[in-house]
Amino acid sequence: MKLIAGIIASILACLLISVAIELPRFGDPHSPANEYVASYYLENAYKDGHVPNVITSVLADYRSFDTMFETCVVFIAGVGIMAILFGTSKKSKHAVQIKSLPSNNSVIIQTATRFIVPMMQLFAFYVVAHGHYSPGGGFQGGVVLAASLILLALAFQLKGGLAFMSKKAMIGYATAGVLLYAGIGVVCMLYKADFLDYSALAYVLPSTDKVMARSHGMLGVEIGVTLTVMSILFGIYTQLASNGHMDEGL
Amino acid sequence: MILAFNSVILLLALVSAITALQIKDNLSAAIIFGTYSFLLCLAWTVMGAVDVAFTEATVGAGVSTIFLVTTIFRTLRRTSD
Amino acid sequence: MANFNYIIVVIILCLGLWAMLSKKNLIKKCIGMAIFQTGIILFFISMGAKKGATIPIIQQGYGAHDVAHQAIQASHYANPLTQILMLTAIVVGVATLGMALSLVQRIFNFHGSIEEDEILNQ
Fold first, then answer.
1. What's the Rg (C-alpha) of chain C?
2. Is residue B78 over pLDDT 60?
3. Which chain A residue's Cα is nearest to C83?
4. Measured between CB atoms, which of A6, A74, A84 is closest to C103?
5. pTM of the model
6. Distance from CA of A239 to the nearest CA of B (A)
7. Of C18, C74, C92, the CB nearest to A70
8. Closest partner residue to C95 among A16, A54, A74, by Cβ?
9. How confident is the model at residue C28 (pLDDT cuts 50, 70, 90)?
10. Mean pLDDT for chain A?
11. How many CB pairs under 8 A join B and C?
12. Which chain A residues contact residue C9 at CB under 8 A?
């Protein structure tokens, strides 16, 4: 099997390298990939939404459909993992028994975690809120929040992490995130604009014009993405670490 | 961005990818996968993609490695292949 | 070598494909899948890189001008379109990896081993 796989991989590599040499030169500012739509986004993103970070502007405004369905994909993955692992019987004959790990209640790790976790969460909120002006945005902030919760669960055993965010809270936050995103779209539809056309929010929010309403709409959907990504990634960790039982783990 | 750095970083990433696949210990393979992910994050920073590098640093070198280590904790660590 | 990045991309892709086909350990297959996905992301980001360009964050734009009071020229900034597509790809990749690892754990609970030939012989 290894020989056949090696032959297939090397034939594929030769074919692809013979094409890769013919691609437009690396770093060319006028290659076809950099010409048509991308230059439109770069020239008009600030004018349309007053958001200097072009990536956040395109993700949350021009291509907000993709981002909404990606949030749904993360949500479905979390639900699917819970469906696979949650409720597996404890009598399974091969499951690894947790021996008492030597670092179960280490004072050093717990004290350092008490200092680090608030700073991580503060930084995560900064990344979400400042995503319009610096690299960042919804996904990055959500993943840093999930990492802070995983650090809690590692230092204070899985029960300590679950005391911070129980299974109900996890599912609640995940659904709230997706609902917030889709809800903003529906609110825009109620004011006779297209789905996810944030300029309709100028009628809802006090004293904003159409351009600033786009900026605030982008912040709203980014918060929705953060909630979903944080809770689902922590949920996946608890399911994997405890084999579905959610009582003890790494 | 200094694009000549790129070649060195990508060669190191290739070496760590090959090592992660050939090593016989699953836990070491997961950690070297974290190294590969972090080297790619550096390559993308050099090429001007800072958002992607930020996401890859948190997701790849953070959460993905943790998922692998957790699964290895619940299954076997030694492997013959 | 002008297109060195693309050659490295092809090698990483074929490495990931070979690992998914030939390795017997299920965890190594999952690592191969993750390497394959990051290779694709490297390809797209390499397509969007520009010589002498800066990151795609408009420096204090005032409408259609940037800080030097020139019109925003697209060749000064790296291509944002490829980066956005790859942000989605990274997040979907970690969701897929989590799903694959949960399946590996379930298989281990049932069969007691994660080597492919031992499972097939049971």
1. 21
2. yes
3. A55
4. A84
5. 0.92
6. 10
7. C92
8. A74
9. very high
10. 88
11. 133
12. 20
CB-based contacts of C95, cutoff 8 Å, min separation 6: A73, A74, A77, A78, A232
Contact: A53, C72; criterion CB under 8 Å: no
| Mean pLDDT in residue range B73-80 | 84
Report the percentage of chain B scoring pLDDT > 90: 74
B76·C108 Cβ contact <8 A: yes
Please give the pLDDT value at position A91.
66
Taking only Cα atoms into account, the Rg of chain B, rounded to an integer number of angstroms, comes to 14
Q: How far is A199 from chain C (nearest CA, A)?
A: 18
Pick from A2, A81, A47: nearest CA to A244: A81
Q: Which amino acid is at A224?
A: G
Q: Is C25 helix (H, G, I), strand (E, B) or coil?
A: strand
Cα separation of A190 and A178, whole Å?
18
Query: How many Cβ atoms sit within 10 Å of the Cβ of residue A111?
Result: 11
Residue A236, classified by CB atoms within 10 Å of its CB into exposed (0-12), middle (13-18) or buried (19+), is: buried
Gap between the Cα atoms of A210 and C104, Å rounded:
50
- Contact: A13, C80; criterion CB under 8 Å: no
**Are the CB atoms for B74 and A240 separated by under 8 Å?**
yes
Q: Which amino acid is at C51?
A: K
List Cβ neighbours of A101 (8 Å cut-off, separation of 6 or more): none
3-state secondary structure string, chain B?
CCCCHHHHHHHHHHHHHHHHHHCCEHHHHHHHHHHHHHHHHHHHHHCCCHHHHHHHHHHHHHHHHHHHHHHHHHCCCECCC
Query: What is the distance in angstroms between the Cα of B38 and the nearest Cα belonging to chain A?
Result: 15
In sign, the C-alpha dihedral spanning A185, A187, A189, A193 is negative
Is A52 part of the contact surface with chain B (CB cutoff 8 Å)? no
Tell me the C-alpha distance between A111 and A37, whole Å. 51
